[in-house]
């Protein structure tokens, strides 16, 4: 476990738990907020387990659903999705990304700001890890 914390936004902070060639393991805390843009990962699988509070997840073309403590969701590669805390209190989840590719580097980049034109640089630099919008 590391002590590295990464603030992706005012509503989301990550703690890096473990990184290897096989997986990136994180714990994420979400404050109540609005849904992020739908995005997808060309080659990565994500697994989430809610540890505290409730998270709303919108995987693929499915309707949004609320996950409570102990519930899990797996997002397959190339599946558009988004996840956020629509509840009144803090939410916390474990998060596993396989393979990790350059995702930790991407998170560090995002923590430095995502306003234009920096956001465009991020989308290009990490296009193998992260895409916004529908799958093309």
UniProtKB/TrEMBL annotation:
SUPFAM superfamilies: RmlC-like cupins. It comes from the Bacteria. Residues 30-93 form the Cupin type-2 domain. Gene3D superfamilies: Jelly Rolls. This is Cupin domain protein. It comes from Occultella aeris. The lineage of its organism: Bacteria, Bacillati, Actinomycetota, Actinomycetes, Micrococcales.
